[in-house]
Design goal:
The chain is of the alpha/beta class and about 160 residues long. The chain is about 30% helix and about 20% strand. The strands form two sheets. It has a five-stranded mixed β-sheet.
Amino acid sequence: MNDIINIHNTIDESQVCYPYKSLIFPGGEPHVQVDPKYITDKNIWVDARICSADGFMTLLCLLDAIDNCRPRRMALFLPYYPGARQDRYQDGTAFTLQLYGRALRRISLHSILVLDPHSDILRAIVDVDAIEAHEVAIPLINKYRGIIAPDKGACGRCAKFA
C-alpha cells in the first residue's frame, strides 16, 4: 500500500488536487515544494492516506510548506493516525502517540479528523475530531453476524456499534 497525500481547497467543488513536488534527498529525507498561488489566503484541507513512517515525514514537510504559504485555514484528514496503538506511557518506551501529536501541533492546523481512533487517549492528547467505526459501519450491519473485539480498547468501540 502506498502513501497518498492530496491538497484541496475547501471551496472548490471540483475536488481538484493541487500539485506539489516531492523528492527524497540521498540521505532519505523527504522534501516538498508547493506553489503559493494555490495556498495563500485559501481554505485548504489535506487528505493524507499514509501507511508508513516515510509517509508521515513527507506529510509533516508538506504541512509545513503549506503553512509557510499562509493559508486562511488548514485542516487535515488523517484516517489512520500513526502511533495510535502506543497510547500509554511506560518507562523505557516511546510514547509514540504523543510524539506524533507534538509534531502535528507545531503546524497551524485548525482541525485534524481521524477515523476510528484506537482509544480516547488520542483525543485527549492530540485534540482530534474523530469519526467512529460504528458511524461508518452502520450500512454494514445486515451483512455480518458478529463483532470481534481483539483487545480491551476494542470492547468499548464494539459496544457502541452493537
